[in-house]
């Protein structure tokens, strides 16, 4: 059996990145994690990196600003996965990924001259949310994430870099147990705000499953240069269904269900802090517009649970049990 593809994870200590490192190791890939000097005194990140090394990963030292170091890292692997966060939209963190594109392009030139063995066969940029190509109408300021992701896609495609985009819909932790409420990650006790009639379908995915499906994709010809949507059937749920599941699990009915219109939901936007302005936009598109479920997957896409039926994904009610 030929050696499994070698994977380099950038932002391997992040919210989804750490799960991708673990999934890569668990699925038997030689796994490399970029160790960036920018972590400075972030002792938690360093110790997470050391724990990955103890589990068999190899740490590659390079800053994203160190082009030569990045080229050297990329040349050692077959697949590069970036999991950089877009949660802090002001930082334009996602734009750092253009340096990865520059590094991936470089050995390609060398190959033309020296015919070196250039291994890199696929780049997975940091997507993992709504499909940014379908969010050109998105509200300010949350639209910045989608615009930055599209800018990177253009750079990747102009450079003919083989790629796969992962559209993972809603990270369960941010949208599930809180019954889709904003500004909290915990279930409400009495009152719950219901968006419109609460019957818009959204899609909730356990973050460990996002990582498992991502690693399943990397060697699959069926996912080459495609967008892979994660739509676990049992987790395609309306907000009402999410509330129902929680009420059944907790054995308590929420006393107040307050329905709010889109206008009422959007009205306070201007008075909120930036992260919540971003969140309001995202929640609006998800729970009023239904942006995750209001389209059919095209020929440039595929659906992960159909490609990999062997993955036993976590149902949302299972996920919610830990919050009881
Ligand atoms: C989730 C959010 C939830 C915001 C990421 C405001 C991209 C990422 C961890 O889209 O802005 O209540 O990494 O009141 O890379 C939003 C974003 C979460 C919703 C962060 C996200 C996380 C996006 C809220 C809220 C639960």
TrEMBL record:
PANTHER family: PINORESINOL REDUCTASE 1-RELATED (PTHR43349:SF4), PINORESINOL REDUCTASE-RELATED (PTHR43349). Belongs to the NmrA-type oxidoreductase family. Isoflavone reductase subfamily. One of its GO terms (molecular function) is pinoresinol reductase activity. Gene3D superfamilies: NAD(P)-binding Rossmann-like Domain, UDP-galactose 4-epimerase, domain 1. Keywords: NADP, Oxidoreductase. GO terms for biological process: lignan biosynthetic process. InterPro entries: NAD(P)-bd_dom_sf (IPR036291), NmrA-like (IPR008030), NmrA-type/Isoflavone_red_sf (IPR050608), PCBER-like (IPR045312). Residues 3-320 form the NmrA-like domain. It holds the Pfam family NmrA. This is NmrA-like domain-containing protein.
